[in-house]
Amino acid sequence: MWLLFRTLRIRLIVQSPGISPYDPGASERYIYSVWHDSMVLPVFSGKHCCTTALTSHHKDGSFVAGVLRWRDIPVVRGSTSRIRTGALRELIDTVASRHLVITPDGPRGPNRVMSSGIPYLASRTGRAVVPSGFACSSCWRWKGSWSDLIIPKPFAKVILIAGAPIYVPRDLHTKELPQYVEQIQTAMDELDHLAQAELHGQRKSPRGSKDSTGEAFLPIPPGLPNNEGESSRVA
């Protein structure tokens, strides 16, 4: 799979400074929200720095956990639906100095529907949530029990977007979680639409141009993280 990803044309877009999961100099730690079916794309698109992932005990989660460990990304087994029980304490202890990646629609769906686990964890840890969006020009779909994993075909073009951080108030009451569930869901949906627009050239942004937040669009060679503020040519 690593050889496959070396053939891809990968472009990373970050909407705020310092939020790239591939940036070793990031001063803040985030919770990255990635849909289950897109999980493979960011895992192989660069070298992750100080990142731990939450994966379920379900069969699909076991496959993803194996891929993550192969890429030297530590894994905590659990699910967003049970994040308020056993997995929460382990997560807090394990990721004190690390980013955390969560699939908010796991472990059994519905596909691409946000659960309350991520805003709950953000509220209890004080970390901002970074929503994400992805698009791929050509892919296979590995059949899962409830969600098909997207596997890009050789030489495909891949767009990855890290959205502006969403801050959830500390120690939020559970009755207030739904508004942040909706906010993160909306951000994820919008970023997926934006990634599709970038993929098909519907959003006119010259290479190296800046978006409304002032962060440069960063094309990155497969497997090689860029420093933010730089751009490099992708063959």
Task: Tag the structure with descriptive keywords.
235 residues; alpha/beta; five-stranded parallel β-sheet; 6 helices; 26% helix; acyltransferase activity; acyltransferase; DUF374
Q: Specify the overall morphology.
A: globular
Total strand count, please?
A: 11
Tally of individual domains:
1
Q: First CA to last CA: what distance? A: 19 Å
Order of helices and strands: HEEHEHEHEHEEEEEHE
How many DSSP helices?
6
Give the strand order, joined by hyphens, for the main sheet.
4-3-5-2-6
Q: Which structural class is indicated by helix and strand composition?
A: alpha/beta
Task: Name the poorly predicted regions.
Answer: 204-235
Q: Major sheet: size, sense and barrel closure? A: 5 strands, parallel
Classify the helix fraction into a percent range: 25-40%
Q: Strand content of the residues, in percent?
A: 15-25%
